[in-house]
């Protein structure tokens, strides 16, 4: 009765573990992922690996073990990488294992989400070079505040869309804007003040309002 009441471990109590002895170090295709991080993978022989041969391996250091050449077979494995990666079905991982224990230590071909998280303050710096951030689908920055302090700020974009509650700008020297067309729409009151002002057009100037006060 004591054995029957023992809680099964999702990694060590594999129903077919006895049929899969030996060691494995090589590719494995993800079949299923559980919410608690246990993944079911299909161990692949080297000749069955369809991942690109030049794909980079991102993995923690691991001891060299004999590589399995057995036929593909499903086993349960635990993620054991140096960074947080959320695998999805179809990924090809680098898996190491012996007997009933298997661990994913690298990504050979994947479409899951990788995360880098650190406690406390973090500084990312390129000493003597340029720091570049790029994303094939875009770059997103989220936080309660964003401070930018540079000698020169350059923006090159097809479209720029800004939405905010209030916008305050202060320019100590020249504010120059050149546009093909300009359109300003103010829902309430518009106020412009200057020591002197000049309005110059090459063609027509139109002033339209219910009341016009000059002077």
From TrEMBL:
It comes from Chondromyces apiculatus DSM 436. InterPro entries: DUF3540 (IPR021927). This is DUF3540 domain-containing protein. Residues 1-10 have a biased composition (Basic and acidic residues). Residues 1-29 are annotated as: Disordered. It holds the Pfam family DUF3540. The lineage of its organism: Bacteria, Pseudomonadati, Myxococcota, Polyangia, Polyangiales.
């Amino acid at each position: 009765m004591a054995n029957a009441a023992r809680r099964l471990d999702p990694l060590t109590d594999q129903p077919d573990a006895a049929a899969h002895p030996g060691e494995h170090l090589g590719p494995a295709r993800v079949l299923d992922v559980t919410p608690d991080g246990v993944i079911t993978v299909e161990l692949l022989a080297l000749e069955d690996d369809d991942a690109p041969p030049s794909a980079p391996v991102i993995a923690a250091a691991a001891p060299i073990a004999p590589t399995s050449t057995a036929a593909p077979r499903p086993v349960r494995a635990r993620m054991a990488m140096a960074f947080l990666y959320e695998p999805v079905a179809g990924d090809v991982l680098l898996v190491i294992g012996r007997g009933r224990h298997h661990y994913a230590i690298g990504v050979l071909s994947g479409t899951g989400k990788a995360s880098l998280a650190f406690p406390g303050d973090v500084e990312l710096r390129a000493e003597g070079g340029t720091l570049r951030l790029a994303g094939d689908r875009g770059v997103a920055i989220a936080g309660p505040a964003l401070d930018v302090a540079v000698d020169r700020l350059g923006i090159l974009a097809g479209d720029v869309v800004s939405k905010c509650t209030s916008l305050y700008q202060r320019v100590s020297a020249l504010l120059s804007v050149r546009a093909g067309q300009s359109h300003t729409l103010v829902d309430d009151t518009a106020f412009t003040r200057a020591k002197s002002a000049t309005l110059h057009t090459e063609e027509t100037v139109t002033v339209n309002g219910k009341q016009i006060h000059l002077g």
